Description:
Blueprint: H1 11-30, H2 34-50, H3 52-65, H4 73-79, H5 83-98, E1 106-111, E2 117-124, E3 127-132, H6 137-148, E4 152-156, H7 162-178, E5 186-188, H8 194-201, E6 210-214, H9 217-226, E7 239-243, H10 249-261, E8 270-276, H11 280-293, E9 297-300, H12 302-307, E10 312-313, E11 327-333, H13 335-346, E12 351-355, H14 359-368, E13 373-376, E14 396-397, E15 405-406, E16 413-420
Parallel strand pairs: 3-4, 3-6, 4-5, 7-8, 7-12, 8-11, 9-10, 9-11, 12-13
Antiparallel strand pairs: 1-2, 2-16, 14-15
Helix pairs in contact: 1-8, 2-5, 2-7, 3-7, 5-6, 6-7, 10-11
Amino acid sequence: MLDTVALSPEIDALMNDIGRKAKAAARPLSFASTEVKNRALNAMADAILANKVEILAENAKDLKDTEGSEMLASFVDRLTLNDKRVAEMAEGIRAIAALADPVGEVIAAWDRPNRLKIERVRTPLGVIGVIFESRPNVTADAGALCLKAGNAVILRCGSDSRRSSQAIHACLVEGLKAAGLPEHAIQLIPVTDRAAVGAMLRGLDGAVDVIVPRGGKSLVARVQSEARVPVFAHLEGLCHIYVDGSADIEMAKQIVVNAKMRRTGICGAAETLLVDGAAIGTHLTPLLEVLTSAGCEVRASPTVLKVAPGLKPATEDDWSTEYLDAIISVAVVDGISGAIAHIQKYSSNHTEAVIAEDPDVVARFFTEVDSAILLHNASTQFADGGEFGMGAEIGIATGKMHARGPVGVEQLTSFKYRVHGAGQTRP
Length: 427
């Protein structure tokens, strides 16, 4: 979690210096060649693997600090690194290197009657500030994604992942140096003082172009409330699964358990299960049984309690709670219309899934539900940039401006217009 230490009168000076260095690094990055950026990325991946022992040792120290705390098991899981996760971190960076370079891509082109030729071309955003908690792998993902898109990045990790993030950041700097890119292109704030977050949210004297928060509700709420620069973020992942009467029950059971229990602490974990009222006799009991057998606590609506009276009753607050734990709320709804109404009332517009074989039900779900990610017959845990073929993501955005859904390399760019003429003047 974000922590507070003794305030220092030097914080503003430190942060403004970081901002100046980032802005200076952003210029050469903006026109760095794809070859050079990829060389840096692959060198970063090599460095992470070469320094695996040190990274895991620093992570062990971070984990030891959580002993005796009230941190949820899901948050401890987010913090934990092991051989597999370090290898996946390196693989993720290589996957980003393998992506097409978005910078300079011509998004659209057209000719005007006066023979002007106009092109819309992707350009880097500039300097991106990323504020995150618990997940040390975000250090690697965010640094690599921003670099690929030609941006400098300022990273602010939580105190719980400080040592792990520092060890990973050292590997990223090693990769930058190996490719001859400015080492300040990826900076990790060296203090845990909350004043550093405030300085980032104020924009560091105009150095920061966008902020991406990746953490708990309190962090994201603070960022969205206080930021004086644009924000790509989601406040909560209140994800729903609707199981229609036309759904294959065996498929539904597998998807529901995976969506809730694969990793309960991620934003794509399902928090509410909605079951078609027409399928109470066929679908509801098998779904409840498979969830409870998997160790999930079910909080049930009154209709569900009539079928399974031993379950815990759901309160009104449950329908708007992101548990990030092995808990799910279950309600019976009046078909697809009832599911859509419930989602519209309680969803955070992150991710929703429909399990159905009826194409008309799927069409209505996709047309009328306005969340960033919609899935048909698939787990909500696929709400992830890596699973979308983006290599990785810097976060999930639920707003409607610029970026929405997984924020990958394309979403970390803006655009400019190039207009080619042949001596035209405007009458």
